[in-house]
Design goal:
The protein has about 280 residues and is an alpha/beta fold. The protein has two domains: about 120 residues, no CATH class; about 140 residues, Nucleotidyltransferase, domain 5 (2-Layer Sandwich). The protein is about 40% helix and about 15% strand. The strands form two sheets. A five-stranded mixed sheet has the order 6-5-4-7-8, sandwiched between helices. Helix 3 crosses helix 5. It starts with 7 loop residues before the first helix and ends with a helix.
Length: about 280
């Protein structure tokens, strides 16, 4: 479901009841009336006891929540809709603890809800492929102990980040947590997120040389003091990503890092296009 631009009060007025949420799902799923997912028939009967639609042609039964993140949920849809609003309305995101207090559910329930919401957000944004002039770099996040910084630091998880450069502003971006920065992980990242044959700027980290296999690779050894000139946008995005992870969630484990990166990616997509 696409996130409408509306205030908290407008959201409450529109989706504050269970019936309103169900109506919204029906209109989104079947804007022109019921269509059987099995045979495409439009004839059906409604089974009240099971809250399901039964196709009159093939007798397949389905519900308005089948195949969605709400499937088989025991929670009111109104709580789900509130979770979606709270997760998507603020670019800073929301923690499971805070969500649990807002919608009166346990922490584990809030955590599971947010995981499903992040999964949907990531799927939506994974379809687009970056193009034209692109800045690409890697970052390291996490780690529980102070010590060495940068590449080679213990306990940290690497992330590959790419950002379209549209004159002085950022376009779309992609970010992905990887086990390590190697030519293989770089190739996989490029295949998933960037159209072939684009111009990509990077620092001179050896693993990034894999870019030249399918793109125009413009690399330069980049001391910290020069990063703002050669790779300005991707470094701003990386800084915002770290602030997002530490500010809202106070750090995350490597096990769930990609989910939080995907959530940031979805938020950043909106404000990058408005001008970084």
């Amino acid at each position: 479901m696409k996130m409408p631009q509306m205030s908290l009060l407008e959201w409450q007025n529109k989706f504050g009841s269970e019936d309103a949420c169900i109506d919204a799902l029906i209109k989104t799923r079947w804007p022109d009336g019921f269509v059987c997912p099995e045979c495409s028939s439009r004839e059906y009967s409604f089974i009240t006891s099971r809250n399901s639609y039964q196709c009159s042609h093939c007798h397949h039964q389905t519900s308005v929540t089948s195949g969605t993140i709400f499937h088989s949920t025991n929670l009111p849809l109104a709580k789900w809709f509130w979770a979606i609003y709270l997760a998507a309305a603020d670019k800073g995101g929301i923690s499971a603890l805070r969500l649990s207090k807002h919608i009166d559910v346990s922490w584990i329930t809030a955590h599971r809800m947010l995981r499903k919401i992040r999964m949907v957000m990531a799927h939506r944004d994974s379809i687009y492929r970056l193009q034209n002039l692109i800045e690409c770099d890697d970052a390291l996040v996490g780690g529980k102990k102070a010590g060495k910084r940068g590449r080679g630091a213990a306990g940290k998880k690497p992330i590959l980040v790419a950002v379209e450069r549209r004159e002085q502003h950022a376009g779309f971006l992609a970010a992905e947590a990887v086990d390590e920065i190697t030519k293989l992980s770089v190739r996989d990242f490029l295949n998933r997120h960037i159209k072939p044959g684009q111009e990509i700027r990077t620092d001179a980290f050896p693993a990034l040389n894999a870019i030249a296999e399918s793109h125009t690779h413009d690399k330069r050894v980049t001391p910290p003091e020069d990063a703002a000139h050669w790779l300005p946008l991707v470094h701003i995005v990386i800084g915002n990503l770290k602030t997002f992870l530490n500010g809202t969630f106070h750090g995350v484990s490597g096990q769930y890092l990609q989910e939080y990166v995907s959530e940031f990616w979805s938020y950043a997509r909106k404000w990058c296009l408005r001008g970084l």
